[in-house]
Amino acid sequence: MIKKIPIAIVTMLISLSGCAKDYSLAPPADSEKVTVTVKLPKELKTETMWVMYRSATCKRISYGASGQRTERDGHNSVYKEFERQGRSDIYQVELPKDGGGACQWHLANVTFGVAYADPARFGENIIPGGGGGVVVIFDHNNSPRGGADFKVDGDLTIQKDYYPWVDEEFLGPYRKTVSLTGEGKIYLSYQALQARRVHFEPVLHLDFVVYSAGPKIKRKGNHTIFTYPGGSVVADGRAKPDFIKLQAIRLAAENNK
Q1: Which domain holds residue 144?
Q2: Which of 197, 24, 194 is nearest to 100 (CA)?
Q3: Which end of the chain is more exposed for a tag (fewer CB within 10 A), N or C?
Q4: For each successive 10 residues of the chain (257 residues), what is the average pLDDT?
């Protein structure tokens, strides 16, 4: 039996299929390039870069429950691996700013970061956690992770301190993770409209590890316990380590050498 299809759905299908356009990227040979480099500590590795291009020509059309039509810029994602430059500690990705093609794609944003190359050095059955992430926005749109925390003119250089954070969680499935904890959120987000070079240098202070253990019983007043380098223990309701405290501990230790 052939089922009847509502006229509204037929109309929508026709409107979507009637535009046979090539949505692929086709960067012109003379496209201006954006170069992203990471100066990588030997204990870390680069993660795959997520690159997003946008198009005002090829719209994304959606329909609400009442049939209202919404148009948004189209987007196209590609994924890039950083390439080591010779035998140095510099890893690089080069991206065309103009994505070309029938949709006239332009580079919108990139998401990348670093993680531990060998999490097992921090114990058995430990898995990588978060931290060490960067988002750079090259246009006036938000990234998939939201808007920018910082806005910069010209090229972008990021140098940030990070500490190893080993965390155990007991409520729900047990898990033990090692993360990079630093200043701010897991992903630091920048808008750099004119940037043609982005340089990220994570500075890893491997000798200053902070440990935490979540509560084993869900009860009011039970908080995650943080044990900082040097042995101080704090359970003040924080969800992540106190970055200022870590900085102070490290600087005091370095001054006492």
Answers
A1: 26-60+71-255
A2: 24
A3: N
A4: 39 39 89 97 96 93 79 92 97 96 96 95 91 96 95 97 96 94 94 98 97 92 94 93 97 90
